[in-house]
Amino acid sequence: MSWKQDEPKVMDEEMLQQAIVEQGPQGQAGKIAKKEGIQYEEVLQLRLDFKNILKIYHLWHFTSLTKLQLNSNFIERIEGLENLTNLIWLDLSFNNIEVIEGLDSLVKLQELSLFNNRISVIEKLDTLQNLLILSIGNNGIAQLDNVLYLRKFKNLRSLTLAGNPICDEENFKIFVTAYLPDLVYLDYRLLDEQTRETAFAKYQYAVQEIQQRELQEQEAMEAQKISNKELQLHKDAFVEFLNGPQLFDSMFAEDPDAEKLALLPGMEALLETFKSKMETLCVQIFDAGLAQLAMRTAEVESFFTCSHEAVADNQRKAAQTAADFENSRRQKTVEMQQIADTELLEAHITSCHEQADQFSETLMSLELQLVDQLEDIFKDFERNISDMVGGFIEYVQGIFALCRDLENQHHEQQLEIALATLEKVVKSELEEEIPDDVAMLLVDKDTVTNAVSASHDTHLQMIDNREDELLTRINSWMSGLLKSIHTDEVKRNRKRISEIQNYIRFVKDEIEDMASSEDN
Fold first, then answer.
1. Edge-to-edge strand order for the sheet containing 158-160?
2. How does residue 350 score in pLDDT terms, banded at 50, 70 and 90?
3. Which of 69, 131, 225, 519 is the most buried (most CB within 10 A)?
4. What are the percentages of helix, strand and coil residues in the chain, rounded to 5?
């Protein structure tokens, strides 16, 4: 192939600039564009075909690009396209690509050509749900079932597979037609009704089976999404996995002797009662957490609404003041241009400077008023959110204290049962037959007591850990939120002061320029 006579190259700045100039406006418009400089962010289309490119590079600034032509090069990997999120058309045909990759962020892509490469599997295109046209002919795709991957692309209307080993399969065309029923063109030809009828007749039951499986998978995915959404809500309330027996189960999952002690006579009923009471307490924390989240969310939304309204109102006042100042300034400028008397001109210039200073003071005063207003709003919010979180923490600590009380009661009852069982074993009065691993605990009082105490310590540790986690996270959330609000306000204030100072500096420079021109 003639375009591959030269040595392969890595895409560089010089290549990109040359391509942009060649493909950009010509004549006078081209000279103007070249003089003003090349703005990569504004380029919409780019042709880089027949450039002997080995590696895609330096394209991250082309964020507005909608059409990219990279065909007929030496490219081995699809990479460096992550920022080209506005791409609609991409041509990577006639390269040396072996694996489909690096396209995840190109969610707007409608047309993709990977024709004449070395690809053996159609994959990693899941995010390209807007794909209309896919050309992947002249590759190494050998498994007919690989076509089933394309069923997820509901907008796909044109598919090119010609030149792949799968095309040698006897039923290739009707297989593709049956499993991709929305396809309009296959290998550049319109799929006629006869082909569709034949495909339906041959693969009807197989297609129905896969449709049923896809429906089940979709339902499972939707259920998982709902579950994930609920879990995230619970995490936002800091009470995830407290809406049932999860804490109780975790206490015993981390207890190495739990299963053995549970086999002691009379323990089954004791454990059921303990579990039920623990679950009730955990659900109380969970319900309080969700209620607290709703109140916190409302409080946060109210704060930001008040803050934004205060800023907007202040901006309206400042804009009106600026408009009045500009009108006056323009009028004075016209007057100054008509003054011939030097002393009178100097008086006008002095007046303009004073007016600018007064305008600056007015804007600064408005900004100071806004800072004070926002500070009052922030203090009210900080007090409200702190009281809210503090009340919730106090409530939670009370419930966790009850959880520990329950564990203490359970520990005493379990120890009583264990020692009573040991006494019966010593006296050979135990009627029930106990497993060997349980019998190993019942060798003497110290062994039994140590096992029950170790179990008790584990349970208390799990309760303490869950309480600490909840309190740490909610305090971290609150401090992070308050710090973020404060930081954003400091940035806003500094930016506004800088804007005022820059504008006043511009106005005064303009006055001085006018004075200088009059002197000359």
1. 45-47, 67-69, 89-91, 111-113, 133-135, 158-160, 185-186, 189-190
2. confident
3. 131
4. 65, 5, 30
Cβ–Cβ < 8 Å for 234, 241: yes
Comparing C-alpha atoms, which of 139, 147, 185, 146 is closest to residue 165?
Answer: 139
Q: Which helix (H) or strand (E) holds 189?
A: strand 189-190
Contact 165, 190 (CB under 8 A): no
- Mean pLDDT, to the nearest integer, of 435-447? 84
- Cα–Cα nearest to 206, from 167, 175, 183, 185: 175
**pLDDT at residue 29 in the model:** 37
Structure confidence by residue, pLDDT tens digits, 42-57: 899 999 999 999 999 9
Angstrom distance (rounded) from CA 23 to CA 252: 71
What's the rounded Cα separation, in Å, for the pair 408 and 414?
10
**Would you state the pLDDT for residue 224?**
95
Indicate the pTM of the whole model: 0.72
Kindly state the tokens that stand for 138: 């002249």
> What's the whole-number mean pLDDT along residues 302-326?
94
Tell me the C-alpha distance between 252 and 458, whole Å: 8
- Three-class DSSP category at 135: strand
From residue 370, give the alpha-carbon distance in Å to each of 280, 312, 318.
Answer: 49, 10, 11
**Angle 291-296-298 from CA coordinates, rounded to 5°:** 100
Cβ contact 354:320 at 8 Å: no
Q: How many CB atoms lie within 10 A of CB 85?
A: 14
**Domains, the chain, with CATH or none:** 2-222 (3.80.10.10), 246-519 (1.20.1230)
- pLDDT attached to residue 37: 58
Which of the pair, 511 or 31, is modelled with greater confidence? 511
Q: Which two tokens stand for residue 71?
A: 């065909």
Taking residue 204's Cβ as centre, other Cβ atoms within 10 Å add up to 11
